[in-house]
Amino acid sequence: MIKNIVFDYGGVLVDWNPHYVFDPWFGGDVEKADWFLQHICNMEWNEQMDKGKPFSEGVAELSARYPEWKTEIEMYYRDWIKMINPVPIAGMTGYVRELKERGYKTYGLSNWAAETFALVRHRFEAFDLLDGMVVSGYEKTIKPEPRIFEILFDRYCLTPGECVFIDDNARNLAAARTMGMHTIQFTTKEALEGPLESLLAERS
After folding, report:
1. Domain 4-15+87-202 sits in CATH 3.40.50.1000
2. Is-above-0.70 flag for pTM?
3. What angle do CA 196, 4, 177 make, to 5 degrees?
4. Nearest-CA neighbor of 92 among 170, 11, 184?
5. pLDDT tens digits, the chain, 204 residues: what are they?
6. Are residues 164 and 199 in contact, defined by beta-carbon separation less than 8 angstroms?
7. What is the domain partition of the chain in residue ranges?
8. Where do the DSSP E strands lie in the chain?
């Protein structure tokens, strides 16, 4: 039986995208912004902060390595809030509310730096609807590491087989499956609803 529905945040409940900052900065040159985000402030670097490294350290280290990009590297943190669309992912806040009203427990499991999550924690209703959450920056461990899933299970007394995890990242979903969770890869609320409702019916 599925009792618990676990949501990733960025790309599932809220729209986070560094291109909102760097596309305009590079004069609308999306390819140049892509290059910068793939080779300088890339996801591997961002995950250091997701895992608990202070942004001040991450920015200083990267700026020393790439001094010609110092301005842009500093912008990544200084202008971070502009990477967040104030409008949540279409339909998801209402769907979280509906699932709760139907009796399911809802949780969050996100790779997110503590410093920046604090800026948006109370800006989105979906976060307040959740019964609990595990955010990597506070735990010093990130998906797909097993430890962050264990923290979720232990903190909220969850049985993995009674949980479905919804994430847009296939790597994280593969890790969740090894931990015994059911998984669905997210693209849109409309695409999620059919597979999730089928799974809930099948596992009721």
Report:
1. yes
2. yes
3. 70
4. 11
5. 999 999 999 999 999 999 999 999 999 999 999 999 999 999 999 999 999 999 999 999 999 999 999 999 999 999 999 999 999 999 999 999 999 999 999 999 999 999 999 999 999 999 999 999 999 999 999 999 999 999 999 999 999 999 999 999 999 999 999 999 999 999 999 999 999 999 999 987
6. yes
7. 4-15+87-202, 19-83
8. 4-7, 105-110, 132-135, 163-167, 182-185
